[in-house]
Amino acid sequence: AGVGVVGTCLAASSDSGGGVQVLLTDLPTIVKKSLIPNLQHNQRLLQKQQRQQDPSSLTKTTPLEIPSSPPSWLMASPETTTTQSSSSSSQKKKKPQAFDMGHNHWVAATSLDWTKPLHTQLHPCQYQNLDYIIASDCVWLMSMLEGVLTTVQTIFDESTTTTVPKLLLSFQRRDSEMFTTVDRILQELQTVRGWKVTCLAWYPVYDPDDDPNEMSSPPTPASSDHHNPPQNATTPVVKEVFLFQVTPR
């Protein structure tokens, strides 16, 4: 989730009449120092905007627009379903903090470490009934890829919905040996995991500070499911951003 831009925008979306509910996750330090403060700030801005538009809006308690409490699944804790040992009981995970985005839209933030089992960190209701998994530039380091995909695999396997959730994965290519590559991601998604991958979007990223001598043209896709960037582009490209939709076959 990082600073929470993508998740907050999704939660604030007004297109869904039933209300959008988003659970943001990151490491504990990021949740405490970045996500929660940003969500608190956004909620204050929303309340200020409501007061400016309609001074009486905060006194209206229409159930559809201002629920009395956040959805229960956003506030669930993993310790309610697992037996904690005495050594870990003193380190119980705090409940997620939820914020009202207006019009029955909610966003909550909680910690999640991709290197640890999902069921020890989240309540089953927080990963068994999802519509989408959004991963915005989460796998840029090679060391992150396995943990992220294992977490996604668990969500796919444990899903109780009629339609398995879709993973929307954005990735920015970077020119460095320590960073993962588009081909590596596609190999892990398609060959190793056996998932279906569709490229929904591709576009170049130009940086005026880049050295023109180090710039390269778009790579040739190694997979038929990999979106083919325009080959007639005359301007060299050093970075690219991809948006993939991933589903189990």
UniProtKB/TrEMBL annotation:
Chain segments annotated as coiled-coil in the UniProt record: none
InterPro entries: Methyltransf_16, SAM-dependent_MTases_sf
Residue ranges with Low complexity bias: 80-90
One Pfam family in the UniProt entry: Methyltransf_16
Region (Disordered): 45-97, 210-236
PANTHER family linked to this entry: HEPATOCELLULAR CARCINOMA-ASSOCIATED ANTIGEN, S-ADENOSYL-L-METHIONINE-DEPENDENT METHYLTRANSFERASES SUPERFAMILY PROTEIN
Protein name, UniProt field: Calmodulin-lysine N-methyltransferase
Phylogenetic lineage: Eukaryota, Sar, Stramenopiles, Ochrophyta, Bacillariophyta
